[in-house]
Structures are given as C-alpha cells and as structure tokens.
Amino acid sequence: MCGRYASSRDPADLVVEFEIEAGNVKESVQELPDNYNVAPTDQVIAVVERKNRDEPDEVVRKLTTVKWGLVPSWAKDPSIGNRLINARMETVAEKPAFKKAFAVRRCLLPADGYYEWYETEQKKNGKPVKQPYFIRPADGGILAMAGLYEIWRNQAVADADSDEAWLWSCTVLTTTATDDLGRIHDRMPLLVERDRYDAWLDPLSSDPDDLLELLVPAAPGRLEAYAVSKAVSSVKNNGPHLVDPLPLDGIDPLDRPEEPEETTLF
C-alpha cells in the first residue's frame, strides 16, 4: 500500500512539468505548505482534467487540492474515505467505490517520493521492529502517482454554489512491487510516465483495457530506496529531515543518546 509520502515541489515547477496554464492553478495550491509526511485525510495537490463547460469536447487541465481518502459520490458519510486511500490496480475497474472514477475521474498526484516500512528481524515487545524507507526517482525528478478523484455533495450545506458544499477527494492506485522494491513491501504506487500524462488524464477516454495499459510498475533502476529515521512513523513529525538518509553508522537519530552539554569553567 501507499500510506505516506512527501510533497514539497514548488507549484511553479508542477505547472511546467504537467503543462498547466497559470490561470488554472487553484489558490489553495499556493496556500498548501510543504509536507514531508503526507498522511491520509491530508489535503494534497492533484492534476486533473475537466470538460470545458462551454465546449464539452474540450478539456481544461488544472492544478488543485483534494483530500486523501476517496469518498464516492454515493456515500452517505465522508468517513468512508478513511478506508479508501488506495485502490488496487487488479480490481479498480470493477469495485463499486472506484469504477466510476476510474472511467472518468483520473488524476496525477505529484510527490517527491513515498515511504514504506520493512519488518526487520529485531523484536520489541514481541513484535518486529519496522524500518521506514524513502523511495524516490533516482534522477531526482517528480513522482507522478496514478490516482482517482471524486466529488461528493455535502447535503448539510444548502448553498450548492458554496465551496463547502463539495468535497474533492482522491485515492492512490497500487500494484505488486517490482523485485528490487518488493523486498521492502509487496505493494507500491503506480506511476504514470510523462509521455502518458495526456492519455491518463483525458476524461473523454473511458475504455478500461486502454486505461490499464497505461499503468506500468516503475522500470528497474527508475526508483531508489534508502532507510530513514523512524521519526516519520509519527504524523506529528514533519520537515525535510524526514527524507534524510540514516547516518553512515546506521544509528537512527531517534536512538542516538543525547550528548551532555559542555560546561565552561571560569
């Protein structure tokens, strides 16, 4: 699964990467702070394409924000989104919660990289100690995760024109991890390569077989993984230090004993 990731790219870089016109960047994108510990229910950046209201055969690409945890349009309660942070590629075209979104509401979720936890042979209180890893593009580029989005109507808000009346939410598509990453975790987010952005986002394309062909696991060597501090395991922690590799001695900063303060003698 994909349950945490990092997102700190400047919106200006995303506009260039995904070929978005400056006027199609939602204000909330600019207001969203860098997040090195993105967790379910957080607001995240998404690239979407919507039909032009005036010209139904045309589409407009936008950079917007959505809540992580998909809430289907038919849901009675938005809390269902807490259980729908991931959608399995193997069943996404048939599952009621994802089928409609997969057909017409696909998105890209830009990330610096994502985290996975590996069960070590060490034990603590009888349970395996889990070592977090950060997985990112080896070339330092933007990770474009395949996602779906939904728009849920909040009936408690009478004014349908109000932003509060509509909840935009998303889920990350996952697949079986490639051999070099499978040793860490058996699942991984699906990536969309740059030459497939247009086809994946196009809301006018809905053939399941064609869409599934666009999704491929990362090629060998495309991603790199390295161990990071267990600090990322708590959503209370945030900051660029979370994606720093462990020191050469392998000791997690959380486990390193504090050095005594120096005493100055007069």
Automatic annotation (TrEMBL):
Q: Which InterPro entries match?
A: SRAP (IPR003738), SRAP-like (IPR036590)
Under Gene3D superfamilies, the record lists:
SOS response associated peptidase-like (3.90.1680.10)
Q: Which residues form a coiled coil?
A: none
Question: What Gene Ontology terms describe what this protein does at the molecular function level?
Answer: lyase activity; peptidase activity; single-stranded DNA binding
Query: Which segments carry the region annotation Disordered?
Result: 244-266
Q: Record's superkingdom? A: Bacteria
Q: Which GO terms describe its biological process?
A: protein-DNA covalent cross-linking repair; proteolysis
Q: What class of enzyme is it?
A: hydrolase
Whether Hydrolase counts among this entry's keywords is: yes
Q: Which UniProt keywords apply?
A: Covalent protein-DNA linkage, DNA damage, DNA-binding, Hydrolase, Lyase, Protease
Pfam families attached here? SRAP
Task: Give the Enzyme Commission number.
Answer: 3.4.-.-
**Hey, which family's this protein in?**
Belongs to the SOS response-associated peptidase family.
In terms of PANTHER family, this protein maps to: ABASIC SITE PROCESSING PROTEIN HMCES (PTHR13604:SF0), DC12-RELATED (PTHR13604)
Provide the protein name: Abasic site processing protein
Q: Which organism is it from?
A: Kribbella caucasensis
